[in-house]
Amino acid sequence: MTATHGKAVEYWQLAGARTLLSPYEGWSKRIPDDAAEWRERLFTLVRGLRTASEDGARHPAEISAELRLAADLFEAFPDGSHKALKNLPRAATEERTPGVLREIADYVDNWGADLETFCARPMDTWELSLRFPRFGQILPIYFGQDGVAISDDMHDATSEEGIRMYIEETHPRCPWDLPSVVAECYQAMALFHTEHQMDRFFSSAAMAGGSGTEDFTDFFPLFARLCVEHLRESHSPLWEPRA
């Protein structure tokens, strides 16, 4: 890759690589030189990304291509000065970064696990977070950890009022946004079976979100119901079969 070509690469074009390498994000963190270490750490994330691809997210091949592009850029810009390389982790031995990124790309392309190995490893926070891209924004913005919607005039809002505020601010994009929010509500109810699990995950481990005045076990069904009701009342019909 030439330096001229490299300058055409935008920051967002390496978003998938950043997601995969997110456990190593931060000034004091580096990707281990030992492949066995990063394979162990990235196993669940690769599994999660493959699962997400079945739901329409990036295909793993796209992410491996991004890793190879990042490797090319690190070779052209060893100091990491290229704008697309911002927030992209480097290897513990910095000059090995291009090679390590290509090794990880090969791991993503060739990742495979027998059924026993696949199922034996429990999901971790990083993998589960891939399932809640919208809640990662919605819960911290509209519902703080103190249990109220974050807005100057909404400090005493109920959960229902906070949800309705979100729906109102989403309108008229609702047919494109709310179905995915409903899906995340049901993913949460399927994956976390107790209030304690939900609170630990959504309020601290994965994101600084809240559930307003309700417990999460009541909040997610309420959120899903209000979204569906709004779509039926304000946007129906969304689709009509052709004769």
Describe the structure.
- It is a single chain.
- The chain is mainly α.
- The protein has helices at 3-6, 15-20, 35-54, 60-76, 97-110, 115-120, 125-129, 135-142, 159-170, 174-191, 195-205, 216-234.
- The chain is built from 12 helices and no strands.
- The chain is elongated.
Structural topology:
Layout: H1 3-6, H2 15-20, H3 35-54, H4 60-76, H5 97-110, H6 115-120, H7 125-129, H8 135-142, H9 159-170, H10 174-191, H11 195-205, H12 216-234
Helix pairs in contact: 3-5, 4-5, 9-12, 10-12
**DSSP helical segment count:** 12
Q: Report mean pLDDT, rounded to a whole number.
A: 90
Radius of gyration: 21 Å
Question: Approximately what portion of the residues adopt beta-strand conformation?
Answer: under 5%
- The percent range for helix content is 55-70%
| Coarse shape | elongated
Largest sheet at a glance? none
Number of strands: 0
Task: Give the termini separation.
Answer: 52 Å
Quick recap:
The chain is mainly alpha-helical.
Keywords:
243 residues, mainly alpha, 12 helices
